[in-house]
Amino acid sequence: MTNVTVKDIGTRKNRTPNSNHLGQSPPRPLTIALSAKWHTYPDRFHWIAEHGFALEYSPNPEAFDLLPQHIALFLKAGIPVRHHGFFPGYEIGHSDAAIAERAVRVHMSALEAMQGRGEQVITFHVGLKSEDQIAPDRVVENLSRLVEHGRGLGITVCLENLRRGPTSHPENVVAWARASGAMITLDVGHTVSCQRVQSGELTALDFVEMFADRLVEAHMYERETDRHYPPQDMTILGPIVDRLLTTQCTWWTIELDEYAEALATRALLLDYLETSQLSLRA
Predict the structure, then answer these.
(1) What is the pLDDT of residues 147-162, one digit of tens each?
(2) In Å, what is the CA distance from 185 to each residue of 72, 122, 240, 251, 280?
(3) What's the Cα-to-Cα distance from 43 to each of 36, 37, 40, 84, 248, rounded to whole Å?
(4) What is the pTM of this model?
(5) Which of 94, 108, 135, 185 has its Cα between 20 and 30 A from that of 31?
(6) What is the maximum alpha-carbon separation in the chain?
(7) How would residue 24 be classed by pLDDT, with cut points 50, 70 and 90?
(8) Is residue 242 a contact partner of residue 20, using CB atoms and an 8 Å limit?
(9) Which of 16, 10, 12 is nearest to 252 (CA)?
């Protein structure tokens, strides 16, 4: 069972729970962020700050010089920022060595641009475009290069699971992360919506169990089809949240574009955490 205490942080509207598995102390703060891509600046960024979310920032892979300007508001206000390297068309595991090398240079540039700005954690991907042919050995080689470069800059590099393709298989994510030294970001919607979970071969909790010892971030929404969809209740997310709270994963990014859905999802998560705490005390 999980002990959760919810506290307000200063005057911010985002309540940040402290969580720990029984027998573990001290409690670890939990951050709830909202995602924002570079092209939604400035409106979405101001809304995120005004509504008390932390920021998960996806920069423009062709204009990393914009990164300092885009996140300056958050850094000045002391609002946490993490980074999301969502770069379709820049596949580090591509079977074509020249294409993969070009992608590595872009990812290296992302690391250099974010150094010293915000929390030093970034999530990368393999297999964003279904038409790209992936070479597993090249994935490990190039992800290892990124992890090493990141380590030299003080940055933690994570690999995210996707709904389709090679990283929809948790075995690949774990193997490539371990071989390269990368940590893992669990995308809950990708997990719930992938073919092996939909078919009943695996459960979402199987992913969490396999990722647990390398898990440092989670992306929160319920499912993905043509877009990301929010939870209506905690039937699906509840067991996942319970297991996440026993790991070192204390950064949860809500990946929803609609503001009302983001607010409702945060409220649902916080209410669930508070109810869990009250149940434990009873």
Answers:
(1) 999 999 999 999 999 9
(2) 25, 9, 14, 10, 28
(3) 10, 11, 6, 19, 32
(4) 0.91
(5) 108
(6) 61
(7) very low
(8) no
(9) 16
Q: Return d(Cα 81, Cα 31) in angstroms, integer.
A: 10
Between the alpha carbon of residue 113 and those of residues 63, 156, 161, 234, 273, the distances in Å are 10, 14, 24, 37, 35
Residue 28: per-residue pLDDT: 66
81-107: per-residue pLDDT in tens?
999 999 999 999 999 999 999 999 999
CB contact at 8 A, 76 and 49: no
DSSP element (H, E) containing 16: strand 16-21
Please say if the pLDDT value at position 74 is more than 90: yes
Record the tokens describing residue 124, joined without a space.
């990368």
CA distance 13 to 253: 16
Task: Tell which residue, 84, 183, 167, has the closest CA to residue 129.
Answer: 167
DSSP state of 63: -
Phi-psi region of 127 (alpha: psi -120 to 50; beta: other; left: phi over 0): left
Dump strand ranges (E) for 135-258: 156-160, 183-187, 215-220, 223-224, 228-229, 251-254
CA 105 to chain centroid: 22
- Is 2-281 assigned to CATH 3.20.20.150? yes
> Where in the chain are the domains?
2-281
